[in-house]
Amino acid sequence: MSAAHRWGDPSRAVTLPDGVRTLLASALGVREPHPPASVAALPPPGLSDRALRALEAACSQVRTDDQARLAHAAGMSTVDLLRLRAGDAADAPDAVIAPADHDEVTDVLAACAAHRIAVVTFGGGTSVVGGLRASRDGYAGVVAVDLARLGRLRHLDPVSRTATFEAGVRAPRAEELLAEQGFTLGHFPQSFERATIGGFAATRSSGQASSGYGRFDQMVVGLRVATPSGTLHLGRAPHTAAGPDLRQLFLGSEGALGVITEVTVQIRPTPPARRYLGWRLADFAAATEAARALAQDGPLPAVLRCSDELETTVNAVSEGASADGCLMITGIEGTEDEVAGVASALTERLAGLGGQPLGEEPGQAWLRGRFAAPYLRDALLDAGALVETVETAAFWSALPATYAAVRDALATSLAGQGTPPLVLCHISHVYSSGASLYFTVVAAQADDPVAQWQAAKAAAGDAIAASGATITHHHGVGRDHIPWYRDEIGHEGVAVLRAVKRALDPEGVLNPGVLLP
Amino acid sequence: MSAAHRWGDPSRAVTLPDGVRTLLASALGVREPHPPASVAALPPPGLSDRALRALEAACSQVRTDDQARLAHAAGMSTVDLLRLRAGDAADAPDAVIAPADHDEVTDVLAACAAHRIAVVTFGGGTSVVGGLRASRDGYAGVVAVDLARLGRLRHLDPVSRTATFEAGVRAPRAEELLAEQGFTLGHFPQSFERATIGGFAATRSSGQASSGYGRFDQMVVGLRVATPSGTLHLGRAPHTAAGPDLRQLFLGSEGALGVITEVTVQIRPTPPARRYLGWRLADFAAATEAARALAQDGPLPAVLRCSDELETTVNAVSEGASADGCLMITGIEGTEDEVAGVASALTERLAGLGGQPLGEEPGQAWLRGRFAAPYLRDALLDAGALVETVETAAFWSALPATYAAVRDALATSLAGQGTPPLVLCHISHVYSSGASLYFTVVAAQADDPVAQWQAAKAAAGDAIAASGATITHHHGVGRDHIPWYRDEIGHEGVAVLRAVKRALDPEGVLNPGVLLP
Known about the structure:
Two copies of one chain form a homodimer. The first copy, chain A, is an alpha+beta fold. The first copy, chain A, has 18 helices and 18 strands. Chain A has helices at residues 18-28, 49-58, 66-71, 78-85, 102-115, 171-179, 197-202, 210-213, 216-219, 247-250, 284-297, 309-318, 336-352, 360-369, 373-382, 399-416, 449-466, 482-504; strands spanning 62-63, 95-97, 118-122, 142-146, 153-157, 162-166, 183-184, 220-227, 230-234, 259-266, 268-269, 273-281, 303-307, 326-334, 356-359, 385-395, 422-430, 434-444. The longest helix of chain A has 23 residues, at 482-504. In chain A, 59% of the residues are buried. Chains A, B: Substrate binds at residue 377.
């Protein structure tokens, strides 16, 4: 298994305490798994010499070594990781292409179209929905187009508060470059440490502070997109009524309609103050009502999350604390005055909604751990646990039923497979009309953990669809969500996407099998 | 000329005071025009009996009388009105179809596709960009599909604060229906008295209170769209990352990609309090900077507008007041406490930005007159003046140059035609990254006022494009903006739209000649 398929900074790898191992064994029946395969089996590289020469003519950096191929063999879903741990790297690309700039991307796409080579655009490699597993069927090969060299801040307009980044800039680097000039993007999804600006755009990412800074699609002012048919440059004003908003076709296009090479985003002055507070609500129903009240009538903090009873308990146990009810986290950012004003209004409002103030410690604990879950997953997989997440969004009036249906579907499916799970949930993003639900599932790995999870995931997807909710609030479609996505946009929606793809990618080389049914 | 081509309620028609007539004559050289033609010349109805029978089979209400045809002969641009005044109703449809519901719309589209009849979807009929003038070339005829009978509130969800309207509901009726349950949409464009919910969606409308309630496209949660190829039902959650946002293809599609039959919108509780205040800034540069400060760092009122020096003077004269500097209007809405809090913060903030408080009277005057401009235009046209508007949006860093370039282009073009104009301007909508500019032009009518305005409009459009701004912030593309729109979205953008149109409207019957080059 490649080090690239453990999460993030190796020095921050998590070791599970013995007590947790014992608990996993006694409560969930988790047993030590087979040790990971020491070497994953790469398929033989499949590109012809002629195709390879065309790629080398188009791009200054083309690699076909095992290390590069393995590092681009999969995304970061639990299924991806389980397959690699089992030595299966069948989805590895034949070559990894790293263009230096937009023009090289354009040349690479032309070469791939001419030679019918499938293109997986690779940013941070953090897809959890199979977005990096292109179809090989009918193609002369598959290449990963890694945008790491598109790493510059092209322009910053402090008057209009916009910044134009090349697509390969990783989120922490983007924040560094903005901080030098006193600005922030304010986009902090759990994938923050690895994900890229282009990936955020291509997948409609939502950050943890979306109530304060907006989702990524709301931050995007402009896009530059390379396609086999030519380049689009979209977004020349803060708003326009000049026809359909074509940017919205590429936001969420997951590499299937074009390669986003530059993104112009709205930026904000770095907030001088922030205060993260915890609150206890009696139960998840009360927490949901309180979240709705804040989302609809304010005060709305930049971060607003609330855990259900079980997630509250599990988090408290892992922190060595005790807990009852449900934990809500509110993160307020702004000037000192603004933060003080919102904190005071929030205290008054939440008191009226049954919220008991827990002070800053729960908020600080959440801030410390906000990017830790993927490290923890690696350790849990090592220990033989199955751990994965499922997320959705629904209108407020449908949220309680959606919550119950998805939780029950996951629990029933896994219990039916002999591995009764823990299913934890929190509201992660709120809107005036509804909210997202983020489920975390922990169970013992069965003998075939991939099939085990796929069955549970299908049950959850069916429950989401039956509730009238969306199959994904922020993870995207990839390959894994296609059956439900097709129903969500309907026959005519699929026809529209196919038509757009034919216009921009007539050879169908862009991420085949991803997004489009 | 049809009464339908004077604006709104006849009892509110404006009569110009003699003083204004004298001023128009002396300052701008305005002379009494030829009296309007008493009867506009309708082209003979062009549909075959067979086509008409197919339409009657599809729809319970089909009219071919002169009155119905004339009422649907044009939109509300000054060019539309001048043509009708000159007796030219060449763009009148052959028939007016009023379907009762979504299914009848679908049947009508099928009949039109089968018989190659062009379809102009007609809501409030308030297009000012030629959006209701379909091409006849190559078609068996043109019909207006008037959605007036799609006039119901289908569903209101008070928990999620959403409402589903049929597309033909006029804005005042929508507000009435919502008010019965304590809600408002908060969408108040100048076309409010006539425009429809479906029209707002199809044209990406922006209301005067867009800073507080959002633009219409931001209010839209869901859409139901009839096309010749089938129906789309989009939007099942407050947000989704399930692929491109297909709603954004139909918002702004101006009847060229489908007929929007239902719109689900975000609603808000009716604000119990509002306070509209006026402020004087030294000049337009200072007013622009103040607007930017409020848009970027707050407090941001629901309505924020500021007039340039000339517009400030002209408005003051018409109110019988004197003025110097530039007038800013701020409209605050919410609970009593919220309004008091924002008003106080605004007073402090604007004091620091050089704003001198003028109290509530200028705000009240603006509220009284906010829907009056179209009535005034009728009276000015009667008196022989040419009056029309031009609007755009630009990033803050480009706004001052855009303002100067457009104003100068209009002035130079009209002066060059022997009719030096008054060019007034205000900032009408603000964003963190920029703002819209709304120009009003008044001059004497030349012998051919249509050609006169078209030359001035082309000069303005070229100046907007050269400034890098958008050809329209909220009026839409129609036929009039196509040359600039084509450049704005580029060759590949046009290819994308054409591909979508082919998929949904293979016979090309939907509003041919509008939106798509």
